[in-house]
Specification:
41% helix, HIT family, subunit A, 145 residues, alpha+beta, 5 helices
């Protein structure tokens, strides 16, 4: 435990949080800055900066907790899916984000945009082609030049 880590303080019961799940190695709380109603963080009880540094037991516990809470979100909140990603950079205590997501909401649009960027390098490379650059310059050229 780290006394300067808010998540360690929460795990030790010295800082407030809205708990939604806990077991021997992990716990889940509501995020205080939610991206959606029900946005939770799933964390190991032990101070672990990065997810890949968790023990096998912690990993199993954290991801089992994430599965249990995500299924509860889908059942209760009727979301389309639960977006998940691991963090630990800003607050160096591993935490898995679980964000209920609905088609077309802010997070869904964000991830759709990221996917389009992943898929578009050939389209972007085409823009660097000398013939395409010349055509674009011709279209944008003004008479004053």
């Amino acid at each position: 435990m780290s006394t300067d880590c808010i998540f360690c303080e929460i795990a030790a019961g010295r800082a407030p949080a809205q708990f939604v799940y806990a077991d021997e190695h992990a716990f889940a709380i509501l995020d205080i800055n939610p991206l959606a109603r029900g946005h939770c963080l799933v964390l190991p009880k032990r101070h672990v900066p990065y997810w890949h540094e968790m023990t096998a037991a912690e990993t199993a516990s954290v991801f089992n907790a994430a599965r249990i809470v995500a299924n509860r979100m889908i059942e209760i909140l009727k979301c389309d899916l639960v977006t998940t990603y691991a963090r630990g950079r800003r607050i160096p205590h591993t935490h898995i984000f679980l964000v209920p997501t609905f088609g077309g909401d802010l997070l869904d649009r964000y991830f759709n945009t990221l996917e389009r960027i992943q898929e578009s390098p050939p389209d972007l490379a085409r823009l660097r082609d000398p013939a395409m650059m010349a055509e674009t310059a011709r279209l944008l050229k003004t008479e004053n030049r």
